[in-house]
Amino acid sequence: xxxxxxxxxxxxxxxxxVRTATLVACITLIAFLPMALQLVLTESERLLQSRAxxxxxxxxxxxxxxxxxxxxxxxxDEVPEILTMxxxxxxxxxxxxxxxxxxxxxxxRKQPVVGTTIDxxxxxxxxxxxxRMLALLGECVIGADVADEYGLEPGDSIVSSPETxxxxxxxxxxxxxxxxxxxxxxxxxxxxxxxxxxxxWIIEGLGHGHEExxxxxxxxxxxxxxxxxxxxxxxxxxxxxITDENMDSFHFHGDTTIYPITAVMVVPNDAKAGTLxxxxxxxxxxxxxxxxxxxxEGLLENIFRIKSVIDAVIAIVGLATILAIFLVFALSxxxxxxxxxxxxxxxxxxxxxVRLILAEIVIIVLMSGIIGTGLLYVVQANTDTxxxxxxxx
Amino acid sequence: xITAVLLLSCMVVSAADKFxxxxxxxxxxxxxxxxxxxxxxVVFPLPSDVDPAFWxxxxxxxxxxxxxxxxxxxxxxxxxxxxxxxxxxxKLVNTSAVFxxxxxxxxxxxxxxxxxxxxxxxAGTAFTTWLDFKQAIQQARAIQLALEKHQPEYADTxxxxxxxxxxxxxxxxxxxxxxxxxxxxxxxIASHPVYQYFARRYNIHLQSVMWEPDVMPKEQxxxxxxxxxxxxxxxxxxxxxxxxxxxxxxxxxxxLGSLVFDPCANRPTQGDFLSVMDENIKQLKQAYLKNK
Lengths: 393, 292
Prior knowledge:
The structure holds two protein chains of two kinds. Chain A is of the alpha+beta class. Chain A has twelve helices and 16 strands. The longest helix of chain B is centred in the middle third of the chain and has 28 residues, at about 155-180. Helix content of chain B is about 45%, strand content about 15%. Chains A and B meet through β3, α5, β12 and β13 of A and α3 and β6 of B.
C-alpha cells in the first residue's frame, strides 16, 4: 500500500518538475543555511582561538588591537601602526621574555610577505618539508598553500609586489629565491611567504645593493665627486635580486634599531613574567601589549551576536517558507479536486488520498535532505577555505 | 662487551644532547670552552686558513649556526656575514654590547649619496676588541651570563671557571700595562689596522699600514712607509703573522724591527689563546728591552 502511494506520488512530483524543484529548493535552503553557518562559525572559532591561544602576547603601537592581532596572526592586509625594532629590543632587555619581531606589510603574488626572524619558525614549530630553511639575504620559505597554488618549488623565485600600482618613483620589486617549502600547518602560515626581517627592509628600500661608486666606470651616474665624497644620481642601478655575486654590496643605511616592524610577538618566560610585562605597558602611551585570546574572544562575541540576529532572520524566513509550503499544498489539494474525486470514484478511501499527499511531502523532504546533506558535506570539507574567504579576507 | 657498547652509546647520545655553542671567532670559542667546560659543546666551524672577520659561510654552515643553542658574536661589526644571513635572534649573544659605547670608529674616506637616504658613508668599527684584555674579560663575562641563563643548573661551575679565566686575562693585562709603561714614548707601525683597542688600552703609539705578512710589499708601499717614517720615526713594525724574510731584512735597513703580535682570531695550529698571547707579549718585551 505504502509502496503504491510512493509510486504514484513519485510520478506526480516528477510530472510537476517546476513546483517540485521550487519546494525542494525552499526546504533545502531553510534547513541548510543555519547548519552551514553554524559549521563555518564553529570552524572560524576554532581557527581563531587556536591561533590566538598559541600566541601569548603581542606588542604594537597603541591603536586598534584587532588590526594588530589580525595582521600579526592571520596576516590580514590591514597594516597596523608601525613601530621600530627598538621596541623588540626593549622587550628582550627586560629579561622577562623574548621578542619575535614581525613585519607584515608587503605582498608577493597577492600572498602576504612575512618578515621575521628564525625564532618564529621555532616558536610555531614550522618545519621545512622540501628544500631548506631560509639562510641568506633575499631568500624566502613559502607556505604549503602558496606552493600548491602557484606550483612553486625550492629554487624557483617569487617577486614582491609594489605597494601601489602607480608607484613610479618607488622601489623596485625584489626577486626572492625560494629556499624551501614549509610543512602544511593548517594555519595562516600555509598561505604566507616568509623572509628574514632584513629582506623585508630591502623590499621597502631601506637596504639596497649597487655597484661601488668609487669603482664605477659609468660616469653618467656620478652627480658630484670630491676627495672624500661621491654623489650618485637616480641613474645608479640598484640590484633587484640578491645573488652570491652582488650580496656583498647590499647594505643598510643608518641605525637598524629604528627600522620599522608591525608587531612584536612576546614570549614570556612564564605566566608571572607575562603578567609583569602587561603591567609595565599598561601606562605606556606609545605601545600596547595585548593578549590575542582576549581580542579574539571580543571578536567572536560580536560574530555570535551577528549570528544570533542572522538566526532570528532565518527563523522568521523559515516560518514564512513553511507557511508558504503549507499554502502550496493546500492550494494543490484544491487544484487537484477533480483528480481526488476520480480517486474516490475508483473506490479509494479518504485515507488513501491523505497517504498520497503525505508520500509527496516525504519525497520532497527526502530530496531536500539528500541535497542539503550533500551541500553540508561540501561545506564541511572546505570550512578552512570558506572561513579564510568569509572571515579573514 | 655489552656494558662497553652501552656506555659508548650513552656517551654518543650525551655528546649529541649537549648544549651547543657556536662562535664567530676563536677567542670567544676559547672563552666559552674555558667557562662551559664539559657541560657544553663549543663549535667554531671555520677552516684554519681564513680570517674569521671576512669569512663567507655557505648555506650548510649557516644551518649549523641556526641549530645552535647559543651563538656568540663579537659585536663591533665583526664578521660582516652575520648581517647577511638569518640567525635566531633569541640565541645571539653580542659579547661586546656592554662596552658598545667605547667602540672605535674606523673612518672611511669615501661617502656617497643616492636615492632618498641622503649622503652616507659605510664607515666601519674597529673589531679586534679582545686585544684589550679588560674588554676580553667583559666579553667572557657576557658568555658566562648567557650560559648561566640557559643552563642555571651549572651556574656555580660557570662562575668558578670564569673566575679562573678572568685571572689569566688579568695577568695578561697587567703584564702589558707594566711592559708598555717602561717606555710610553715608543712608536710602532702596525702592518694592518687591527690593533686599535690594544693601542688604546696599553697606551701604545701606533700607525697602521696595509701590508700582508706573506706578500713582499710593492715599491709604492715602501715609498709610503718612507714618507710615514719621516714624520713618525717608529722603531718597530707589528705583524699579525710571521713576515716574509726579505721584508724583515729590508725593514731593518730602514731602521724598523719586526715583531709578531698574533690577534689569534682563528684557532692556532699549536697551543691556545693564552699561549699565543704569552708568546705575543714575549716578542713585545724583547722590543721594549732593545729600546730601553
